[in-house]
Amino acid sequence: MQERNMPPFAPVLMQSTRAIGYSLEAAIADIIDNSIAAKAGKVQLSFFPVGDAYVSILDNGTGMDDAQMNIAMQYGSKSPTETRDSSDLGRYGLGLKTASLSQCRVLTVISKQGDQVIGRRWDLDYVIKTGAWSLLILDKEDFASVPHISDLYEQDSGTLVVWQNLDRLLMGEVDYEKSLGRKMDEVRQHLELVFHRYLSGESGIKKLEIVFNGVKLKAADPFLIKKSTQAMDTETLVIRGKRILVTPYILPHISKMTEEEKNQLGGKDGIRKRQGFYVYRNKRLLIWGTWFRMMRQGDLSKLARVMVDIPNDLDDLWTLDIKKSHAIPPAEVRNSLQTVIDRIADKSKRTWTFRGKKETLDSVEHMWTRLKTPENGIVYEINRDHVLVDQIVAEAPEIRGKLETLLKYIERGIPLNQLYIDLNNDEKIENDADMGEQEMFKTLEQMLSVLPSSIMRREMLEKIEHTDPFCGYPDVIRALKAKEEGHLLCYRCSWRRKNAGWSKYRKFQASV
Known about the structure:
This protein is an alpha+beta fold. The protein is built from 20 helices and 16 strands. It has an 8-stranded mixed sheet. Strands 9, 10, 11, 12, 13 and 14 form a 6-stranded mixed sheet that branches. A hairpin with a 3-residue loop joins β15 and β16. The longest helix is centred in the C-terminal third of the chain and has 23 residues, at about 330-355. It starts with 9 loop residues before the first helix and ends with a helix. Residues about 1-5, about 355-360 and about 495-500 have low confidence and may be disordered.
């Protein structure tokens, strides 16, 4: 058998790998992965869009020596089958080069360890000229012209990555300034999401600070963990002796979110498009907003999100791509995830339908009744047994017929199509906002005032404890019960024990 040594088509390969498909934000995230692997606690990202435009990423990690630098600048510097440190976010040994050169034609990397400073540069035009893998070795005179080199000198150690000749950054754009501003926003939002667990300093990982053009980035928690409910306990799947952790969350109903929270959760794509699995590799977000074709995205499951933590030992099973932006769960994982999907989708549907109330729904008397009939399909009716309807009829029996006519017109006049549009646009609908405690207190007090006896008033209070919307105001109902029983001072003590605060109590006492 004979062999032939093929010529090194460096220019062709380097030009070809530029078309892998990196976006600007994905390319920058790939560089920051290297900073995290180098134990960096801070990354400074800088855009300079005018004149000799550049992008620079400076970290304060461990830095590299000559041998490490030469390996880092090689294409395929590490085998994807090689065992990596548990904190290593790399895979193919291509990220630094392919991510950088997808956006620029000149890549400069300078690293510092103690007093030693070394630099290397890939210049695509120079590679084309030589027709070989011509990696440039920089000297001290070359360092002087590199942006932010003085910032690196001030550190004990670290690495500076600089992109210049940004031929791909604004290719095809007409409005340069507007396009650059949009791209910078996209980069910021992407980094705040992808590295949110590092930015927040989650237990078990080193906290990372990312400063973008002098502004410190904030973690964008896609689960809104402080306000959401954990739909199920964390499940542990064991594949090849390695653990995959699955934690499902149900977001609060949209009416309970602030505008800032809604923007954080969905951004321009909307909350509906961000539902699904969020796959993390060593707590770095890889892929999000997908059910992996195991369930369709729908309005009733829009509040469901599932955190999936995978180790870097199982990259081959998840068919992780070079950009670390695409992964497919293996069959043994899909089977377990299907069970999670079925359970969490049902809980999301109930949260969406019942406005996020606790699941005591079977015992609650609702204002609206949903009926499914074989003739007319789904029908929404006002509950004729609701306490408010009962009271109106009891006070004025002669208007029963007119009231029934009014309720039917209200039911038939529901603007269902417009409601559907508004809900899908994630608009805050004021009708869905909760009534304040003072307003609810006055409403109930007025209802009770028409009842002639204390016994009837106490019975009414017992009934409305399980009636929507009154059941959402237990403190108000307790206050009215205490007032009815003449034990307001006792209630004052119980309020204090609940740490509700004296200012709040005094306002309530004034109403009573």
